[in-house]
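Handout, section B. The chain below has 295 residues.
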Amino acid sequence: MKIRFRDSWQFAPFAFFLLALAIDTSAFAQKSAANAANSQSRLLLAINEGGAANADATETFLRFQEFSQVVEKALGSSLSLIAVRDRNTLKDALKRRAYALLFARPNDVPAEAIRDFGYQPVVMERVPSHALFIVRKDSPLRSIADVKGKSIVTPDQYSNMWRVANAMLRDNKISMANENVRAMRDQTAIGWSMENGFFDVAVVNSASAVGRTWEKNGGRIIARSPDLPNMPLIASPEVSEAKVAKIRAALLALDSSERGKAVLKKIGLTGFRETSPQEFLDFIKWLGELEGAKQ
């Protein structure tokens, strides 16, 4: 079929539209491919605050964004921040070495990653955390020995605070398995349950809101654990010792500048200190092995 001159002019805008669409589609495809490649090249920094915090993924990202930028600059590589709250998901990913870095409040998981999966400690919060056995002001309980036969509420079974409480009771000849124990994921809920007299004694993290304010609000602490690793940062074996050293130096220096102090304040920490693999190995040995828990 012959196309008349008049018809060809009518077709021209459509032809230009098709050409522009092809160019835009090609550019979009190239940009998508570049973004995918960039995403794959980014290393993962996982954040886990356990049951001591109630933040969702968005809140976690906003609070730790500046911290991740400090780490990213020292590392010299792009980082993607990821919030991981599920314990088993976290452990499975560490086993696969999916995270280049993990910053976690539950200290037993990083300790196991150092012992079992080749991870290396970078730094930890310089103020230690503790497991606290708390009671109401009018409670007759005075020490951990008085807990035997009483109703106890703890964080999730097999969580780090549960494990520390289990080890403390074990050291005092009390078996957690033989006691009347209930578990709650949220430590704020644990505090509310205690305030309203649903349990005789509770276990909370000293870093939690309940742990920080229990005595100020009139409650009592009848037992305190030994010093525990607090918010350790660990690195995958794929992160070189030289890069670990650079990250360590950058984080140790945070409290020496106003900007660094602001970063620390935003994530609720006072500063960092150096640590060693042996500190974690001794800690996990004291906790003891778990029976019946997913490893």
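Note. The two ends are 74 Å apart (CA to CA). Compare this with the example in section A.
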